[in-house]
Amino acid sequence: MKKKKIAILTGGGDAPGLNAVIYALVRTSIAKYDCEVIGYKFGYRGLYNNDYINLDIKSTSGILHKGGTVLYSSNKDNLFDYKIEEHGRTIKKDVSDIAVENLKRDGVDVLCILGGDGTLTSARDFARKGVNVVGVPKTIDNDLACTDVTFGFDTAVNIVTENLGRLHTTTESHQRVMVVEVMGRSAGWIALASGIAGSADVILIPEIPYSIEKIVQKINERNAAGKPFTIIIVCEGAVDKNGAAVVGKVVEDSPDPIRFGGIAAHISRQLEQLIKQEVRYCALGHIQRGGETSAADRMLSVRYGVAAADLIEQEKYGNMVCIRDGKMSYDSLENVIGSTKVVDPDGELVYIARSLGISFGA
Ligand code: F6P
User: What is the pLDDT of residues 22-33, one digit of tens each?
Assistant: First the structure.
């Protein structure tokens, strides 16, 4: 039987655990299944430019624990709507056929794509074009459907929780109100989990629109109870009662061009008008995606990597590996794309937070 040739790419915002998936996938594919593996650099851009490196046991040695991705990434470069220069003009064009040609020319049998919803939307579209695709669910936001948890999320929650602890001591010392902005786009998982673990007083998530008056009410209650400082954690994509979010910037040629940002500053300014206490804000930003990968994410990522290698061996293409009730499984990319996994306002985690006396500003 012909040796299978697998190509890996990592797309979208990086997430801790990408290297651990690559490590496990390469090792299992080579040592157990006798495959050949290459990695395209900078996500789909590398596939378009035929820019790849060979991946083997030696080149992936020592990467398991490292954050980032040895294959680099790009959260632009949608090959179905790609920015190119033609006749001196910049236009957008579907160049996916060139990618398919590159795969054929290089003898690639399977494309294994590590990404979030933008990257996996293209994965689904390549599957529809007949490419043998296997997806692996990556994102610190934990907002991908069909899997209980994505890799990268646990590390982000640990980082935020640790930083909430730091912000607690300084906020208490000055008896201030601190508004802490975290990532997550339109899903409040990071804010909710780290808000509970890090003992925030108010958690604002996109799934539960907030009112500034309710936040003030919670601050006043704490002051009256002899706790004259308040920690508010806010997901970057949170919305007020009128449905207004705060957009930081628009990144053209990204599958999802909206970048949230600035809501902590916005809420701080509003609070300053309404309360006597000093208000400060802190946006944790890309620190949430950087540095070492947590032990739980390393474990999850190697499980995903081995499961992806198994799926490729079984030739179950067009699927994404997933985890359900603690067990590895897989689901069709057709089911993954199109819906986002968001926090259930009536779900257990919100119930837990409310039981602890945490306010959702609602
Ligand atoms: O999807 C992951 C994520 O980190 C989001 O939480 C955040 O909104 C976005 O990516 C930031 O993207 P960029 O790296 O382009 O600033």
Answer: 999 999 999 999
